[in-house]
Specification:
Layout: H1 2-16, H2 22-34, H3 71-79, E1 100-107, E2 110-116, E3 122-125, E4 130-131, E5 136-141, E6 145-153, E7 159-167, H4 170-177
Antiparallel strand pairs: 1-2, 2-3, 4-5, 5-6, 6-7
Length: 178
């Protein structure tokens, strides 16, 4: 049975390998070769090679920090850290940008700040209390603002202090009420 199938297939395959009409193909090739195609412009002369020495090896690497830290700065960054064992205060759950200073109070020579959280609840805070997600501790409260000191990561495994503030903004209060 294999012989009956393979025989005709072999004949068909060998027929495709026979001498095809190559004459018309050669005539077409001769016509194409006889046509003038024009001149190819010469290539421009290559510029002279001038070696350049790299003299910036002693300069600052673009992959290194712009101002290298001294050992003392690195040690200070490692020593400074937020107290992660301290119980978190309610306003530490919100980003500082989402908290609004709505007023200040002064009673018995002690000033406090009134802060509205994103849910609309107003909290009374004193110097030394915390707010914001970056371990912000209130350092000063006056009639129109409060200042705080945040402890944020320095990107190199340590921490740095950053000053922040919240101020009264009459325009925001009018918009919120109106």
């Amino acid at each position: 049975m294999k012989g009956k199938i393979l025989g005709p297939l072999l004949i068909v395959a060998l027929t495709g390998c026979g001498n095809a009409d190559l004459g018309s193909l050669e005539r077409q090739l001769n016509v194409l070769q006889s046509r003038p195609t024009g001149k190819v412009a010469p290539l421009p002369e290559a510029p002279a090679y001038r070696p350049v020495t790299y003299d910036q090896a002693a300069g600052r690497s673009p992959f290194a920090p712009q101002r290298p830290e001294t050992e003392q700065e690195r040690d200070l960054g490692k020593e400074l850290a937020p107290d992660l064992q301290r119980p978190r205060e309610p306003l530490e759950a919100y980003a500082l940008e989402s908290l609004i200073l709505v007023g200040t109070l002064r009673t018995n020579e002690r000033t406090s700040a009134l802060i509205r959280d994103p849910e609309g609840e107003v909290h009374r805070l004193y110097v030394g209390e915390y707010l914001g997600t970056d371990f912000g501790r209130i350092t000063h409260i006056d009639e129109r603002s409060l200042q705080l000191l945040e402890i944020v990561p320095n990107g190199q495994g340590g921490w740095i202090e950053r000053r922040g503030n919240l101020a009264l903004n009459d325009d925001n209060e009018k918009k919120r009420r109106g």
